[in-house]
Amino acid sequence: MNYGDCAVLYGQLEAGYDTINSISHFVIPDSTNGNYQNLKNTTNVNVPGRWAFNAWAAPAIFYLFGSAAGDTEYSLTSDEGYVPVSFSIPYTFFGHTYNSLYVHFNGLLTFNQPEPASGPNYNPTRGAEDFIAALWSDLDDYYSCFFSYQQYTNGSVLTRATHDINQYFPQMNFTASWVFVVTWKYGPQQNPAILFQVVLISGGNLSFFLMNYGDLAVIYEQTEAGYDTINSIYHFVIPDSTNGNYQNLKNTTNVNVPGRWAFIAGNGSVTTTTTTTVSTTTTAQPWTAPAIFYPFGVAARDAERLISGDEAYESVALSTPYTFFGRTYNSLYVHYNGLITFNQPQPASGPYYYVTRGAEDFIAPLWSDLDDMGWMGKYWYQQYTSGSVLTRATQDINRYFPQMNFNASWVFVATWDFVATSDVNSFIHHSAQAITFQGVLISGGNLSFFLIHYGDCAIIYDQVEAGYDTINSIHHFVIPGSNVGYSIPNLKNTSNVNVPGRWAFMGGSENVVGLQMRLQSFSDLTKKEDIETVLQQIKQELVNHGESSNFELKLRKFKKTQS
Asked: Same structural domain for residues 4 and 151?
């Protein structure tokens, strides 16, 4: 902005700039106090009459940072350096409560100890460290480094944090009481080559954190973004952060806001116990599963397995072949981590988000790294070719698919149960948080179906997903809400057959040549546009009953039988 002579002006006057919501703004001194004629002698760059500004700004998802926010600022002074920061309010990170953390120049936040390593030990480290890796790499060896941080206990930042968390976790009814913002910049400070930010948020007994990404220049070392916990009980790696595609992080998200990732870090509730002596006699009652579950466990004489091997699975030979979307199998693999696969076992610990378009047919009742949570877990399975279970399966399928006139001849039931305890009695009585779900495979004639059942399911802090997929993903489905860990407790209330906690799907047939439906329509089916509308209604009904949406309906013949 350049100024020459300025004559007398009789109206209000101002020089400077402002932005939407005034996130960035500046008023040139003397421009509003009546001394505007002196502007030709003022400057911020030692050139009288000239004012120069950098118009660069961080993306809107970033919380305010730097000198404009009054942050504490640091520039790199030592290789692999870090700064300890004491909290004004304790912060709970997946069950561990901390009064301080360490901000590292290499894009890392650690809680219980500093991390001397220059670059990432890829998650999960299964070590002795709780950390958040905003973008962990040897950045301080290639760029000038600058970071700033600030804590807030009141004001507009808390208002913004409250709004953000309630937008992403609406069931929490959350109010922020403390926010910690730390931002890293690498390269020229006026227009950084690499920019990212972490926001820690707490309130009541809840804690969360956000990770925000801007531009990311080329990095020549290993990189990683995500979080890990002591013994890696909870851990997550942001996709694209380790595969060389980290520059795309500004376009990725888990909350539908490009460049932002949001996580719940657990609740730090402390149980206060008041002891009162009462003389009573009680008999502890074993926990029972919801009524939608088929019989399982010792009472059903199932094969029982204790969850003991990391990413383990068991091969099960089927007494009757089962057809899954056009492919017939004589065996399957039951995985400890909530997965059933058909043509091959799946060694990966957690889900590769649909659509995989890979070489695998599978059913994911609840696919996650459940076997690494440190909880006591078991699964059971059994096949049936006669008896009351077949009768029940026949009734269920005919209720949900009434046009099939189905009769079950084979049923396979697999049930998983995890409880946050190491005590057998607590496991039996479900006296701690639990995750319980079941898959039921059903066949008869040339038809096959499967049910998925959900009981109580605690929040899962790792990648998670439920549904099914097929080779090349020709047929696939993800149960809504199942790939967001904080929504998992609601699965017991969801359904596609109006039975809370139950999802029912048709697994295909060997040769279905037709489908009979009763349809009432007041449309003129001699008109092409009305025919298309009715066909779409039929298609939606099929999808509602478990059919993939990857098909097209065409009218082969139309005959008017009544005027």
From this structure: no
Residue 256's Cβ-count burial label (10 Å; 0-12, 13-18, 19+) is exposed
The answer as to whether 341 is a domain residue is yes
pTM to 2 decimal places:
0.48
- How far apart, in whole angstroms, are the C-alpha atoms of residue 503 and residue 100? 45
Backbone angles phi, psi at 394, to 5 degrees: -60, -45
The residue behind tokens 């979307």 is: 325
Structural domain count, the chain: 4
Token reading at 49: 């009459």
Six-digit token pair at 190? 């006026």
User: Rounded to an integer, what is the distance from CA 467 to the centroid of its chain?
Assistant: 15
Amino acid residing at 112: N
Q: Are 459 and 523 in a shared domain?
A: no
Please give, one letter per residue, the 3-state secondary structure of 107-141.
CEEECCCCCCCCCCCCCCCCCCCCEEEEEECCHHH
The answer to whether 132 and 227 are in contact (CB under 8 A) is: yes
- Measured between its terminal Cα atoms, the distance across the chain in Å is 81
CA-closest candidate to residue 287, choices 492, 489, 458, 455: 455
CA 392 – CA 342 distance, rounded (Å):
25
Report how far apart, in Å, the C-alpha atoms of 495 and of each of 53, 337, 489, 500 are.
57, 22, 14, 5
d(CA 129, CA 562): 76
For residues 208 and 169, is the Cβ–Cβ distance under 8 A?
yes
d(CA 189, CA 147): 10
Please indicate, yes or no, whether residues 248 and 360 belong to a single structural domain of this protein: no
- Average pLDDT on 245-266 reads 84
**Structural domain boundaries, residue 48:** 1-53
Q: CA-CA distance, 534 to 541, in Å (whole number)?
A: 11
Written as one string, the DSSP assignment of 245-274 is -GGGGGG--SSSSTTEEEEEEEE-------
pLDDT at residue number 223? 81
Q: pLDDT tens for residues 89-117?
A: 999 998 889 999 999 888 889 998 887 55
CA–CA separation, 515 vs 40, rounded Å? 84
Least confident of 259-263, 376-380, 425-429: 425-429
Distances (CA, A) of 460 to 36, 211, 419, 434, 453: 61, 19, 12, 11, 17
